[in-house]
Write a structure and sequence with these properties.
SsuA/THI5; signal; 3-stranded antiparallel β-sheet; single chain; D-Maltodextrin-Binding Protein, domain 2; 2 domains; NitT/TauT family transport system substrate-binding protein; alpha/beta
């Protein structure tokens, strides 16, 4: 076992032990271990609520927060986690890992941004360093795609998990060019008006985050997976219909207890702005086809989009069963 694999196993095992130790009263025999390669923030509030609703239906969801999406994906591949959060297209194709995406959580809604003291437009980033969320993430794919479209090449890419972390790094001057979410965009515009410029994106529409799992796990735990998918879709639809519902869910399930007043105030504006990026039907085949177009252009996937097969990347069984019960939106 190489050093990276040992580190991944040790990290996930240690956190899993802490979770188990913190909840000695739990008696479920088969927990659903979810590896989340990010920190819990306002933007993940509806997902955390969906996890709580799945627990109410009898699924012992145990979430481990890891440093990046690629570590979360490796945790699923190595068997240290059952379900991962991310968009592991490159891993699926290049490593042929026995995992499949089964529900789309969000589409890309990001904003490339630069400190105007140094850069003004895309061409100014030629030969410069940029920061993204993690290796293989949607944020990296966007920045690589825009580099290709604008005929530039970065000197390097640094990986800084968490949109809030990258926003703070911009304000502190530690990062000069990166990509943030809508909450970060509002923070930058509020705290430093005119200091930052948001670079244009044209025709970018693809999966930002999805749920994926080992194929054996999906087959052996079909009922639990469907419960989770239904919890997600019903929560997504509730929040999309009324963004105020996200704050109510936070109160109901006592989520993000350490959130600052500023973060709490940002919940409704965030979900109001994020509504177009929240898929109400879990993505499915149409999302997979759109992803093939985007990720082949950006370089995360190899080959022609038309030649890629949905079944090589997605398992639609649970999603189709749930849509059959609750209907499409």
């Amino acid at each position: 076992m190489n050093q990276l694999a040992r580190k991944i196993r040790a990290t996930v095992s240690a956190v899993a032990f802490c979770v188990a130790a913190a909840a000695p009263g739990m008696a479920w025999a088969d927990p659903m271990r979810i590896a989340f390669g990010d920190i819990a923030t306002v933007e993940s509030l509806h997902l955390l609520a969906a996890f709580e609703r799945a627990r109410e239906k009898g699924v012992d969801v145990q979430v481990t927060f890891l440093k990046s999406e690629d570590i979360a994906a490796q945790a699923v591949v190595s068997g240290q986690a059952d379900v991962g959060v991310g968009a592991p297209y490159a891993l699926l194709q290049k490593v042929k890992a026995p995992i499949r995406i089964f529900t789309q959580l969000s589409t890309l809604q990001f904003y490339p941004v630069v400190n105007t003291e140094f850069y003004k437009e895309w061409k100014d980033l030629d030969g410069q360093e940029v920061a993204v969320h993690s290796r293989g993430s949607g944020t990296e794919a966007i920045m690589q795609l825009m580099a290709a479209r604008n005929g530039i090449k970065y000197s390097g890419i640094s990986y800084v998990p968490g949109a809030e972390v990258r926003t703070g790094a911009l304000l502190q001057g530690n990062v000069k060019a990166t990509i943030v979410d809508s909450s970060g965009k509002r923070v930058l515009e509020d705290k430093a008006p005119g200091k930052f410029a948001f670079l244009p994106l044209d025709g970018v529409n693809a999966t930002d985050e999805a749920l994926f799992a080992n194929t054996d796990y999906l087959a052996a735990n079909a009922k639990d997976v469907e419960i989770l998918v239904e919890a997600i879709l019903t929560t997504w639809r509730e929040v999309a219909a009324d963004p105020k519902a996200a704050a109510a869910l936070r109160d109901q399930y006592k989520l993000l207890p350490d959130a600052t007043p500023e973060m709490v105030a940002d919940i409704e504006p965030y979900f109001t702005e994020a509504a177009p990026a929240v898929p109400l039907n879990g993505g499915g085949e149409a999302a997979a086809r759109s992803d093939f177009d985007f990720y082949t252009i950006s370089g995360a996937l190899e080959g022609e989009a038309k030649d890629l097969k949905v079944e090589d990347f997605w398992d639609l069984t649970a999603l189709n069963n749930v849509i059959g019960r609750i209907g499409a939106k």
